[in-house]
Design a protein that fits this description.
Strand content: 15-25%
Mean pLDDT: 91
Largest sheet: 5 strands, antiparallel
Number of domains: 3
CATH topology of the largest domain: Aminoglycoside 3'-phosphotransferase, Chain: A, domain 2
Number of helices: 15
Number of strands: 17
Oligomer: single chain
Distance between the termini: 34 Å
Structural class: alpha+beta
CATH architecture of the largest domain: Alpha-Beta Complex
Shape: globular
Helix content: 25-40%
Amino acid sequence: MNPEHIRVLLDADAMRQLLGAIPLLADGDARLTAMSLDRLWVKPGRHFHASYRVALATAAGPYETHACAGLQPSRRELSPLRETRAPGPASWDLERATVHVESPPVRLALFPWDARLPTLPLALDPERVAAALGGVRLRSCTVAGYWPGIRCQLRYEQGETAGGETAGTIYGKVFPEGAGQAIALAQAAVTRHATETPFAIPRLRAYLPRLNLLLTEPVEGEPLLDLLPAATPALMERVASALAAFHALPTADVERRFGPGDDLAVVRPWVDLIGALFPALVSPLAAALAAVERHVPPEATAPPALVHRDFYDKQVLVGASRVGLLDLDTVCQGDGEIDVGNFSAHLVLRALQEGAGAETAGPLAEALVAAYRAARPGADPRRIAWYRSAALLRLACVYALRPWWHALAPVLLDESRRTLD
């Protein structure tokens, strides 16, 4: 990946000029009135996708949506369903809403056209989804979260009951072609074993392969992220107990394994990418990576746990009686310590984002680790520290790409090294 091309994608002003090549905008049928960088999805050396919040002036009035840009895009057919029209006042089709640009080499698209999520326009149609489910009426579909090139989270509201009450909500995720089936199988396997536990997970409603759409039931609770500013050690103990119970579930139905070597394989390309983009970070990146490499633990000899592998505050809902664990897309066999370390690293990140010092995350992280080790006495504190250090290094790389959080990267790198001292 060319660092200069990536810098263009991170610059909303530069991208505003590029988006003008989209036929809908180039022909004047819509006019871009505002734009800002929203989200990134990156696999260093393989994919670099950015999404932008855009405001358009159309013949039907103002309209807010997303635009996405993908470096090194696939030249495959974006979607065979060219007659499909996207929802919205402009109701633009594939040809009007997408374009290839040669320099930098990107595919540009207005939502919901996404080269890696070709069925997304179909999944936005509640009637089509209801027909595929059978016996269900869905009255609306809204976007709950969009990560370009990787997934789109949707919220479907069911029709009213005979008494006039809302029948409930179904959540959906649209994945790249072929990715959703394995995730659905893993989630179904976990759900079968997750009864009478101190945690709740989304129950699989259905997987619709023609739409690459995974549908789940909602989980009750308040987002932990919203509770963190006033969180207590007691709350962390509840989270740790739920996580320990999750780790105790059977692993036989989940095939993928993930260990320290795999974590290093994730981190190293990130360090290379960020070092190429930001020369001032080369030295602290190298120091943090060297520390992680010096202390890498051996592969575990104990039986693996069922691990979440992307466990942090946004994946947790706090209910009156149970803790909800969300987004099981990365569930696998491995060290339970990886989830504890990753969660602890995010506590440091949140403290920094609130303008506090990294050390203010200490009491909550200590409570989490102590409660987890009490529930799972075999947990190794050195492995927890190593996974925390690796996670802090990865977070430093990820947040270095976000202009509004770039200044946190050196602090996160310091914390990564300090964790292993």
